[in-house]
Amino acid sequence: MSGNSFDYSLFDNIGFPTRNYAADEWIFMAEDAGERMFIVRSGEVRIINNGSVIEVVRQHGVFGEMSLIDGAPRAASAKTTSPTELIAIDRPSFLRLVQGNPEFSLQIMRSMALRIRQLTETI
Predict the structure, then answer these.
(1) Measuring CA to CA, which residue among 9, 13, 10, 68 is closest to residue 38?
(2) pTM here?
(3) 57 forms bridges with which residues in the sheet?
(4) Residue ranges of the alpha helices (H) in 2-123?
(5) Degrees (nearest 5) of the Cα angle 100, 34, 45?
(6) Integer CA distances (angstroms), 52 to 55, 64, 83, 115, in order
(7) Binning pLDDT at 50, 70 and 90, where does residue 1 land?
(8) Cα 90 vs. chain centroid, distance in angstroms?
(9) Other Cβ atoms closer than 10 A to 3
């Protein structure tokens, strides 16, 4: 989310995999299994639901965490708008981070709370 940055040293020290995406590349589609969450190192990702952009995630923003938390399929699709580098965090790594790093847990909760507030304002 914009305005909700993560401490990148945490992810660099652990060595999470990164992946580079081209512009206009799909990262995942709605209804896909949610196997990872993502942190944007560079670039931009649009979150799309029913053909409408519901969020734009930029550098240091996170997305895809909801499926790791509730185990449900993806609620929306994600597509890059420019060349983008993402950090991918799978469920076992996510659970280790939540258990071992309270600040990470709070940052995820803040990110989700901000997203809910922004979506509520548009209704």
Answers:
(1) 68
(2) 0.85
(3) 45
(4) 8-14, 65-70, 91-100, 102-122
(5) 95
(6) 9, 17, 21, 16
(7) very low
(8) 11
(9) 10
Looking at the chain, the whole-number percentage of residues with pLDDT higher than 90 is 55
Q: Six-digit token pair at 26?
A: 């799909």
The whole-number pLDDT of residue 12 equals 61
Residue located via tokens 């020290």:
13
Side-chain half-sphere of 45: how many Cα atoms within 13 Å? 31
Amino acid identity for residue 96 in this structure: R
Q: Is the dihedral of CA 43, 115, 70, 97 positive or negative?
A: positive
Q: Give the separation between CA 79 and CA 17, rounded to whole angstroms.
A: 19
Cβ burial of 85 (10 Å; 0-12, 13-18, 19+) is middle
Residue type, 114: L
The SS3 call for residue 66 is helix
Q: Residues 32, 33, 39, CA angle at the centre, nearest 5°?
A: 90
